[in-house]
Amino acid sequence: MMDAQALEARLRAEQLWRHAPSDVDEGPWYVRVLVGGAAWLGACLLLPLIGLVWLEALRDVPAAMIVSGLAACLAGVALQRLRGEFVRQAGSAVALAGVIVVAVELESYGFAGWLATAALALMLYLAGRGYTHRFLCAGVMAVALVFALTEPWERGPSQTIACASLALAAAVLWWLARPLGLRRGPQLAPMALAYTCVVSILVWWVPGASLLADGGAAELGGTGWFWLGVLAGLPVAVTAALASQVDAAHRAAHSLVPGGMLLLAPAWLAAPGVGLAACWLALGHAHGRPVLAGVGVAAMLTYLARFYYVMETTLLHKAFWLGAAGTVLLALAWLLTQRRGGAA
Amino acid sequence: MSRMQRWYQSAAGRRAAADWWAAGVIDGQGAARAREFYGTLDGAAWLAFWRRVCAWLGVVLLAAAAICLVAANWDGLSRWAKLGGLQTLLAITVAAAVWPRAAPWVQTLALVLASMLLGALLALVGQIYQTGADPWQLFAGWALLMLPWAWAGRSVSLWLFWLLVTQVAWALWFDPRPGRGDGFLPGFVLINLLALAFQEAGRLRYAWLRRDAGPRLVAAALLAVSGGWAALAASVLVRGDRGALGWWAVAAALTGFFYYAARRDLAILAMVLASVIVVATGQCAAWLFAAGLDGVASFAVLALLVLASGTLAGAWLRRLAKAPARGGEGDQ
Question: Splitting chain A (344 residues) into consecutive groups of 10 residues, what average pLDDT does each group show?
Fold first, then answer.
């Protein structure tokens, strides 16, 4: 299999290489995480400067916070356009602090306020440069959308609706961002990763439903069941879409995976986080994104730890669904081993 | 080259080609050529991936089911049925692990499942006979009984699981005893440094210890806990715990020196640098506030410090990443 250097050499030899990359090289994943973490911490530390100064000075002027926040956003984007790594990181932090200040001020406007915050974060996403900046802006956008959809924050179907909508959006974004799919696809990857991270945390608050429980259906309501069904069905859709990309010789064997996921859907109704994590793991592997695959594994383990304490499902029902899902998965692994033997 | 390394290289190549296309470095024709090289999903590799995911996830879910079943304390099963059932399951998994005709990956999975079921069995014994044992004793017993399996299994996953159980026992030992919490951090740092030393020494001799994931996960836990503790030690939350800073410094210095000079691993160096930034910010915050500097100005100074140190650390790591590879260097 050809690596990046060999591919570059081949493309150069075939006169298909036009010029050197102009964009700033952000380095491997651990450098992005380090620099992104520093930018996020810097943004949090800048909040008092951008927000509190105005709060103290212009306490009675309601627009002061919004104006200062927007000014910070503009300044941040301007700094992003300058040369120099430090200035670009500072630009990210200033812009991020600005959008958070605006979000705090607009919070009292409810749905419209959160939607405005999401729109502002989207504009910063489009105007800014670099993976780290876009990831942080998309994270703010995803959180704002969650609050918009769950306003007021009460445990119930609203979390399920927000989680399922964002999970669908993340899956579609990952599909559009697949390597060598669309030309502008890579620019969507930071948004897809941010949505994935937010969904992986939000799913902790999604009340699952055990089909064995009495009265569970009535408590959840039609809307809740529908969106929970969407969450449980997402692994089927994702694995079916990925199976269609497999070479023709192995396609028949791969139809087993979506079939298995369909069989597992009732278990994902009780534990929706497990099915979602499987989606991220599959997409990460198929599209060659180790960070996404890592997020999938981490999301799976943390959700299982959280699931133990979920109150909607009794421990006995949890044991049943987990045991049933584990048995189906082991059977699927055995079937795939047999197919491998047949294929070989 | 292992299957995982082939996948990683191919993935990096595909992503690089996509980035070149998006940046205009290659045109549509170049992208089409790159697509030809990578083609559709490799069916055999994809099948192997799903086989592993299904098997691992199945084992983890079965173990989680056993733990939930024990915790449910179901009246529908007698104590003998519960004990007998769990022990039968344990015996079957151990038999599968030692069955000579089983594939190595099946043996490893069976041993992982047996190790998890062992903890569930100890909890069940404590529940039925009301032994009065503290939670730390359960975890310590679990770690002790599991140790031969962790060694025999020759699997990084099993070894990391054993380390996790050991550290939970250590944490629980200090948690419920007021006044003894100060000893947690030194023990935690020493356990993890020993674990890193064991992995690095064993790497030369045992193939199963040559994966980078093991040291990286141990280093992440070591630096996150000791660094977080040291940063908090400067604040009002745990003021006075001066030893925390020293233990973190020992952990960061030894880890950083080894993974820079002896076996370069840039991901672990990034973790060391992140912990340095967090601890330095915590200490500076304590000094600035103690000096009576205005709150807003202090935060601005801290923000500048964080951004500058993050930029410098990122630039240094990028330079190291572009330097020629050294022997035993982890993936980039």
Answer: 74 77 68 83 78 62 79 89 78 87 86 93 91 91 93 74 94 90 86 96 87 67 87 93 78 82 92 93 88 92 89 87 93 84 42
Q: Decide if B91 touches A, using CB distance below 8 A.
A: no
CA–CA min distance A246, chain B (Å): 5
pLDDT at B332: 38
Q: Residue holding tokens 């000094």?
A: B287
The pLDDT of residue B180 is: 52
Using the Cβ of B95 and the Cβ atoms of chain A, whether some distance falls under 8 Å is answered with no
Nearest one of A50, A201, A68, A44 to A136, comparing CA atoms:
A44
Put simply, the answer to whether B270 touches A33 (Cβ < 8 Å) is: yes
pLDDT of the residue at B54: 92
Establish, for the pair of chains A and B, how many residue pairs have beta carbons separated by less than 8 Å. Answer: 305
For residue B202, give both structure tokens: 């064993």
pLDDT of residue B329: 46
Across B44-48, B293-297, B309-313, the highest mean pLDDT is recorded for B309-313
Judged by a CB distance cut-off of 8 A, whether residue A252 touches chain B is no
- Short-list B41, B38, B16, CA closest to B26: B16
Nearest to A27 among B53, B72, B318 (CB): B318
Q: Are B174 and B183 in contact (CB under 8 A)?
A: yes
Residue B320 CA: distances (Å) to CA of A25, A161, B16, B324:
14, 45, 19, 8
> Best residue in B57, B275, B277 to probe A by mutation, most A CBs within 10 Å?
B57
- Tracing tokens 């440094």 back to the chain, one arrives at B193
> Which pLDDT does position A61 carry in this prediction?
66
Task: Residue A23: list chain B partners with CB under 8 A.
Answer: 19, 23
Q: Say how far apart CA A314 and CA B15 lie, in whole Å.
A: 44
Question: Could you tell me if the ipTM is greater than 0.95?
Answer: no
Quick one: DSSP state of residue B208?
G
pLDDT of res. A219: 66
Highest mean pLDDT among B9-13, B173-177, B180-184, B248-252: B248-252
List, in sequence order, every residue forming a beta bridge with A246; answer none if it has no partner.
Answer: B41
CA distance A154 to chain B (A): 27
Nearest-CB residue to B314 (from A18, A85, A260): A85
What is chain B's mean pLDDT, rounded? Answer: 85
Which DSSP symbol is given to A206?
A: S
Distance from CA of B161 to the nearest CA of A (A): 13
**Which residue in B194, B188, B197, B184 sits closest to B223, CA to CA?**
B188
Min Cα distance A145 → chain B (Å) is 28
CB atoms within 10 A of CB A82: 11
